[in-house]
Amino acid sequence: xxxxxxxxxxxxxxxxxxxxxxxxxxxxxxxxxxxxxxxxxxxxxxxxxxxxxxxxxxxxxxxxxxxxxxxxxxxxxxxxxxxxxxxxxxxxxxxxxxxxxxxxxxxxxxxxxxxxxxxxxxxxxxxxxxxxxxxxxxxxxxxxxxxxxxxxxxxxxxxxxxxxxxxxxxxxxxxxxxxxxxxxxxxxxxxxxxxxxxxxxxxxxxxxxxxxxxxxxxxxxxxxxxxxxxxxxxxxxxxxxxxxxxxxxxxxxxxxxxxxxxxxxxxxxxxxxxxxxxxxxxxxxxxxxxxxxxxxxxxxxxxxxxxxxxxxxxxxxxxxxxxxxxxxxxxxxxxxxxxxxxxxxxxxxxxxxxxxxxxxxxxxxxxxxxxxxxxxxxxxxxxxxxxxxxxxxxxxxxxxxxxxxxxxxxxxxxxxxxxxxxxxxxxxxxxxxxxxxxxxxxxxxxxxxxxxxxxxxxxxxxxxxxxxxxxxxxxxxxxxxxxxxxxxxxxxxxxxxxxxxxx
Amino acid sequence: xxxxxxxxxxxxxxxxxxxxxxxxxxxxxxxxxxxxxxxxxxxxxxxxxxxxxxxxxxxxxxxxxxxxxxxxxxxxxxxxxxxxxxxxxxxxxxxxxxxxxxxxxxxxxxxxxxxxxxxxxxxxxxxxxxxxxxxxxxxxxxxxxxxxxxxxxxxxxxxxxxxxxxxxxxxxxxxxxxxxxxxxxxxxxxxxxxxxxxxxxxxxxxxxxxxxxxxxxxxxxxxxxxxxxxxxxxxxxxxxxxxxxxxxxxxxxxxxxxxxxxxxxxxxxxxxxxxxxxxxxxxxxxxxxxxxxxxxxxxxxxxxxxxxxxxxxxxxxxxxxxxxxxxxxxxxxxxxxxxxxxxxxxxxxxxxxxxxxxxxxxxxxxxxxxxxxxxxxxxxxxxxxxxxxxxxxxxxxxxxxxxxxxxxxxxxxxxxxxxxxxxxxxxxxxxxxxxxxxxxxxxxxxxxxxxxxxxxxxxxxxxxxxxxxxxxxxxxxxxxxx
Lengths: 503, 482
Hints:
The complex is a heterodimer of chains A (503) and B (482).
Chain A: H1 7-24, H2 29-57, E1 66-74, E2 79-85, H3 89-110, H4 115-134, H5 138-147, H6 149-159, H7 164-193, H8 198-203, H9 208-225, H10 234-241, H11 244-269, H12 271-297, H13 302-323, H14 326-357, H15 368-371, H16 373-387, H17 393-408, H18 410-434, H19 442-445, H20 452-470, H21 473-492
Antiparallel strand pairs in A: 1-2
Chain B: H1 10-28, H2 32-56, E1 62-64, E2 69-71, H3 73-99, H4 105-123, H5 127-145, H6 152-183, H7 188-195, H8 201-217, H9 226-233, H10 236-261, H11 266-288, H12 294-313, H13 318-342, E3 346-347, E4 350-351, H14 361-364, H15 366-379, H16 386-400, H17 404-429, H18 443-457, H19 459-473
Antiparallel strand pairs in B: 1-2, 3-4
């Protein structure tokens, strides 16, 4: 179903209009600060409404891409402007537009210097993230995917914590090093197939030997982004140093670009190589799940613990994707959306207490429930969702992934499930140490309860986490046809024996 | 020979005449500072007029001077970059000439002479014309490098540049003599014909010498040694000129020689160029990390950039020519922008160009810092800025030609390069303010800087027509026989 107006293009570039507005703001510092916050919030809020409109136009029963926009660009190189969504990208688009205003709202109090530049960075980031999920041309995808580095580098580097310089450089160079090999792979694919159109490339059968290398090149990029063990080390640093809203977006959306990349490129375009490499990815994922969970247990910094838990949760996602079963992939998708909501909320929860005490040391807290009862409720809900309690969105994702993993190998399912146990351990422990117990420290007793702005941020996240926990179908139905199409694509011509070493 | 055959070279003839007339103006003009000012204005007008002549006589390929000189749309494209670059340098020159105490009329005259040499170089169709062009280009450069006579570093830069330049001319001349000896011709077309049969080993050695000489002129590794010292020692406006203009001409010549004269024997030069490309990228990226001086950093950055351009060139396909042309265009735009900023950096009236002087730049000069941020991310090759597309096209050319290892080395060294570019962003935006630079900024610099940043930021929109236009000029790089 095509709309008469280019809805995805409008959606993608709408936040940039906010940037223009912000650049034109005049007045004294106070005015500029207030206006910047308001403009950024309103623009991103409006973008969310447009994305809801796009969601209404979206017909989940159709397999393939919808709401497509096309334009001529670099025709002699086979590159064109092509936007479109399917059941895999649509949820991410809405997740992006949903989380961005919340993240902007979350920085209202925390960010007090260079507010205008900060908001410009966030709006630019939103455009790039939406574009990444909407692009149907590999080159355009790469442009958006890579350009995300610029605003994120600045957000971590300028508004981050003490070691922000180290963290921002590490983030930038790790992800850049990962994705430049993808660039070479894209060039090679364009040379082989004569086009960079994603739907066309998904139909193009690359030679299995070639797939082997292309897969590895794309893998380098997505594995860093997800991130998979052992290239995850940038993530805890980036998270700890980033401002609260930066962490929310980083965990909520940027990590998902890796998982999205696997589903959009690796599986459909290199099915043989995907099958061939699946065991390696299972191994890395299981290591990630178990190892980073153990590391999370040892953390004394709340943000770092949640950052490590993100790596473990993303391990679930990569297991799910590479089981290449209906349940596994659906579980991975579900887990990504759920984690987007839950981890954003958890990072915000850390930010809320950080704003009050200016420390993230777990030991500095204890008995927060006394002074902030509502906070305790929200935090608990998110903690339980992260652990995968039935009735929350976290449960559905993890359960489906385990079902998919079981079909592949019971041993894999067993190892992956240990992550659930470990996850429950560290999250409950964290929660007990921070929220329960008697408040003894003077600062903790005098902490002010949640203000209205903070409740406004928590509430929609909490509602969605519960909603998807109780009615998973509302999300699964949206993705199902597209997921099945990807799996069919893999099964259609997957023959791992053709690959080097696979005889 | 009828008069008509000189018309393709009308722009060069015009420029030569004006330059000679300007020598007289300089000699009898009186007060040095005032004449210098007048000369710069006349120089700008001359460049504009030359540009108009270049544009009006270059739509089709045509030969002049009995086949010694070739005008083509390709040459027009490259000459226009040279002229615009030189014009912008003259526009930027005023305050820095005064500050460096070199406000002499000779500066403009030497720039014009050098530009003339470059234009001859781009249009050369014969090895002798090539040599003449290269010397006409280089001699004024040696002089302006050493123009700040009371500065030891400037004199040293000039001397160093001259000695090494003479060495490279020697290499080039020796190569030319070998090629002449083994093919019996100096005309590109005749050499090309002669090479399409069997290639003697003497000619191969000659070709390698010629390529080495040209590599020196674009400061590609391992012929890059002079670049950092000359960049650092010369007055900043001269460094800007070095960074922007001669490289374009030398790269155009490189294209003319490899894709024109040596078109029948890609096997002979392709590997040499590939090796030079890899060395340049790696040396440029690694050595730049240690630099603390902006001008030295720009020197290493230019070495790396020439490496990327040569990656495209070594592909030996026609698509590669357009890639190199676009790369050079982007390189020139970002260099202009960066130097417009460097020329503006002063503290208490003194020019400064250490990286650490940029601390707090985003607070004191938000617009300048934002533009420099665009230049740095662009040079690091981060999309959607212009620099990314330069790399994109050259790597595409390499991959299309099956040179995948070259592209892989290229992208990996660009990650190393990204480190030192974003370090400048870090210094500007993240480091604490402890140095305050003078707030004054010349309007000309600001406009030039702003325009360059805008072009690079919005490059993605102009890309398609540019690519088409550039591709259209490519067939003309191949010379017309006879």
